[in-house]
What we know:
Mg(2+) binds at residues 110, 235. By secondary structure, the chain is of the alpha/beta class. 22% of the residues lie in helices and 29% in strands. It has 2 domains: 2-231, Spore Coat Polysaccharide Biosynthesis Protein SpsA, Chain A; 266-444, UDP N-Acetylglucosamine Acyltransferase, domain 1 (3 Solenoid), CATH 2.160.10. Strand 4, helix 2 and strand 5 (75-78) form a beta-alpha-beta unit. Residues 496-501 have low confidence and may be disordered. Residues 12-15, 55, 79, 83-85, 87-88, 108-110, 146-147, 160, 162, 176-179, 205-207, 233 line the site of uridine-diphosphate-N-acetylglucosamine.
Amino acid sequence: MSDLRPTAVIVLAAGEGTRMKSTTPKVLHTIGGRSLVAHAIRAARGTSPQHLAVVVRHERDRVAEHVRQVDPEAVVADQDDVKGTGRAVECALEALPAGLDGTVVVTYGDVPLLTSETLEGLVAAHHAAGNAVTVITATLEDPTGYGRVIRDAEGSVAGIVEQKDADEQQRAIREVNSGLYAFDAAVLREALSEVGTDNAQGEKYLTDVVAIARGRGLAVRAHLVADLWQTEGVNDKVQLARLGAELNRRTVEQAMRDGAIVIDPATTWLDADVTIGPDTVVRPGTQILGASTIGRDCVIGPDTTLTDVEVGDGASVVRTQAELAEIGPGASVGPFSYLRPGTRLGAQGKIGGFVETKNADIGAGAKVPHLTYCGDATIGEGANIGAGTIFANYDGVTKGHTNVGAHSFVGSNSVIVAPRTIADGAYVAAGSAVVSDVGPGQLAVTRAQQRNVDGWVARRRAGTKTDDAARTAQAAQAATSSESTETTQGQPTTETKDARR
Ligand code: UD1
Ligand code: CA
């Protein structure tokens, strides 16, 4: 197989892409969580070429920087003022070691569904037939805009004529040039030196290499690809969405073949790099994006968006928005939870309804079940954070960190003012504002004592239904209880003062 490795793959990405009507260069638009050019580079890299070159010009610095991030080994080749696909390839060859031999593959930076397998098939066919040039072609219902493939009597490719240069008869041809080729390196180099710019667009066409090679009696053949999606380019935002949807359909299908249970593929969006373990159920309305990895036997969704999230086996994540978070095995998140970057939930832990977390390390089996903001916190294993607890992490100037120890309990509706440490095995009474540290085994209580004002309803709300209810209850109490009304320890004190409030 190693002799089938191309010497070089050249990805053309210098074009302007004016029909995108965007300030973002066309090849930097994304589908499936990757830029168009990243898809192209990945397909190219998959053929294990000795060299990979990406040709840039429009928005050169942005595209080049992105290419370096995606594939640091790729050679960025600059196209000069001469326009056209032929000149683009020439510039790539100039940026690569001189005198390359073997096979050079040319692809486009805006054809995102093309796979390595298809390119390998192209190279294999090119070798098997002993071709100088092999062109991937497709037969389209509507060939408008594409270069038409001119076949000779033997069925070889005699030339490619651009739409703008074609006569009526040529325009009727439905077999089109996809723009993806395998070339013998020497033939390519020599033929390109002969290509001029005498055509309707005044460009140096790569397609002219075909006729030049054929004119020398070399073998030039077509390689038909049945899967038309793989050769379709993105020229505008309609095509971007169309190819994005098809890529997603393929990704979701692959996830199911790998063992995931997807209830509604039509409303499930998976980025290309996402992995999902077997028997995990993905419910409708769910997007799993970026480099997210989901374990096996999980339940994800409905209506959940996970971006760069790691979910352990057997976890459940329901109606949740999460980014750059780790959810441990067997943990439970949602419904209506918002996990911001830096959230780590331990095994069997819980983040419940209307809870927002950020930069929070929540230990194994710890629970933050209801209505809480938990930012900049470390929570020990088995701790329980009561409903409505606020981790006040910001004083308007700096952010502080809070530690809650293992197996500690924070009562409902407490505010913990950072930086603060609540030790292992400590309690915070409900409704407390915690402004100093709490030691092991201590209970922190910071609230005012309760007063019950006798007869207040009768005086201040006389004649209301509340007053009626109170009287009925008092009468019932008096009837059923002949015991003394002494106050037992722990019950609220009763006051009669202040009755006029
Ligand atoms: C090209 C082909 C046409 C084919 C079609 C398939 C030529 C002359 N024509 O036409 O036969 O049917 O693709 O989509 O090759 N590019 C550069 N530098 C340039 C010009 C283009 O790098 O100077 C890149 C573009 O970024 C793009 C690709 O080459 O990725 C194709 O360019 P485009 O202008 O879309 O070519 P078409 O006119 O569509
Ligand atoms: Ca195009």
